[in-house]
């Protein structure tokens, strides 16, 4: 289902949490709401879910105004950062819960529920874990079960609020790839809230960058990275050097766009303050003679050609 958000505003204690936010999310798309803490992204997600009410504006799901609908009637699946699994229930029981508590007239048969749970266990690659309790699972496995439980009721929209925030970096990286594959199979319109730019850029079809209650830019990840619309987006998405003032305003350059020369007649004098020659790229911090520092990323071959080190 597509989602249309129009002029949403929300204030709390006189402070703007959302300020005239408008956004279109296409059917079957995966959009990431990316921004720092306090930018309004979680509030926007909760309004879509019906857990909060805006002061102004509207949310339409597939053209229908959802403002008058109760949260339980919106056919929205919500996944939180801390799993929220029932500790006394097995994996199978957790996944089946949303189906089993439906009113009798809407509840699938036991065989249908069992088949749906089997299908989801296979989808999350946990076929043999159905009998286990949440306490017997790793953090990554618990989050996969939480996602399966949200998908069990076949929601029109799936909302994910920092779903991997409580996990370590390696598990987060693995689950990012898994979530993208899951979305490609399930094809549910999905909104992911995250402050992790790498997560947003790897997983989403579209990224909406939020700052101070507003959306600063919306677009495909590559456009957000290569063509930032504002100084905030330039500095928040990817590493960016803020250079000197120029006639047209401020100048920015990413570390891989910088070049080093040993010719004193070229560019600006700098000293290598720190160097980390690990991985495919060497990462350098340069202290400029004019003040300040910049980051520079060089290939290992280019670093070898220059024959420089810390202090050069």
Helix and strand succession?
EEEHEEEHHHEHEHEEHHEEEEEH
Read across the widest sheet, the strand sequence of neighbours is: 6-7-8-3-9-10
By DSSP (H or I, 4+ residues per run), the number of helices equals 9
Q: Describe the main β-sheet briefly.
A: 6 strands, mixed
- Give the low-pLDDT segments: none
Helix content: 25-40%
How much strand?
A: 25-35%
In round numbers, the mean pLDDT is 90
Distance between the termini: 57 Å
Feature tags:
312 residues; alpha/beta; 6-stranded mixed sheet; 4-stranded antiparallel sheet; 9 helices; 15 strands; 29% helix; globular
Task: Draw up the topology in text.
Elements: E1 3-12, E2 15-25, E3 30-34, H1 41-49, E4 56-61, E5 64-65, E6 76-79, H2 91-100, H3 110-123, H4 139-152, E7 157-161, H5 169-186, E8 189-194, H6 197-203, E9 206-211, E10 214-219, H7 221-226, H8 231-236, E11 241-246, E12 249-253, E13 270-276, E14 281-288, E15 293-299, H9 300-306
Parallel strand pairs: 3-8, 3-9, 6-7, 7-8
Antiparallel strand pairs: 1-2, 1-4, 4-5, 9-10, 11-12, 13-14, 14-15
Helix pairs in contact: 2-3, 2-4, 3-4, 4-5
How is this structure best summarized?
The chain contains nine helices and 15 strands.
Question: What would your notes on this structure say?
Answer:
Helices cover 29% and strands 30% of the residues. The model has no long low-confidence stretch (mean pLDDT 90). The strands form four sheets. The protein has a six-stranded mixed β-sheet with strand order 6-7-8-3-9-10, sandwiched between helices. A four-stranded antiparallel β-sheet has the order 2-1-4-5, with helices on one face. It contains nine helices and 15 strands. Strand 11 and strand 12 (249-253) form a beta hairpin. The longest helix is centred in the middle third of the chain and has 18 residues, at 169-186. The protein has 312 residues and is α/β, with parallel strands linked by helices.
């Amino acid at each position: 289902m597509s989602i249309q958000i129009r002029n949403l505003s929300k204030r709390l204690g006189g402070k703007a949490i959302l300020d005239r936010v408008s956004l279109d999310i296409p059917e079957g798309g995966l959009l990431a709401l990316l921004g720092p803490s306090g930018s309004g992204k979680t509030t926007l997600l909760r309004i879509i879910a019906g857990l909060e009410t805006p002061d102004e504006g509207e949310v339409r799901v597939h053209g229908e105004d959802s403002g008058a609908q109760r949260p339980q009637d919106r056919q929205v699946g919500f996944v939180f950062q801390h799993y929220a699994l029932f500790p006394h229930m097995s994996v199978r029981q957790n996944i089946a819960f949303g189906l089993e508590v439906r009113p009798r007239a809407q509840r699938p048969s036991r065989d249908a529920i069992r088949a749906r749970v089997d299908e989801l266990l296979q989808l999350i690659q946990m076929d043999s874990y159905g009998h286990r309790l949440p306490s017997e699972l790793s953090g990554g496995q618990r989050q996969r079960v939480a996602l399966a439980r949200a998908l069990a009721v076949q929601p029109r929209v799936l909302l994910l609020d920092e779903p991997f925030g409580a996990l370590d970096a390696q598990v987060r990286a693995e689950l990012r790839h898994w979530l993208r594959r899951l979305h490609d199979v399930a094809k549910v319109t999905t909104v992911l809230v995250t402050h992790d730019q790498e997560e947003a850029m790897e997983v989403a079809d579209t990224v909406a960058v939020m700052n101070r209650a507003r959306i600063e830019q919306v677009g495909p990840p590559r456009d957000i990275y290569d063509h930032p619309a504002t100084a905030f987006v330039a500095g928040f998405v990817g590493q960016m050097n803020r250079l000197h003032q120029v006639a047209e305003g401020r100048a920015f350059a990413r570390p891989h766009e910088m070049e080093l020369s040993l010719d004193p007649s070229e560019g600006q004098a700098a000293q290598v303050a720190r160097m980390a020659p690990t991985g495919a790229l060497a990462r350098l911090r340069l202290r400029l003679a004019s003040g300040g520092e910049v980051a520079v990323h060089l290939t290992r071959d280019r670093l070898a050609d220059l024959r420089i080190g810390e202090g050069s």
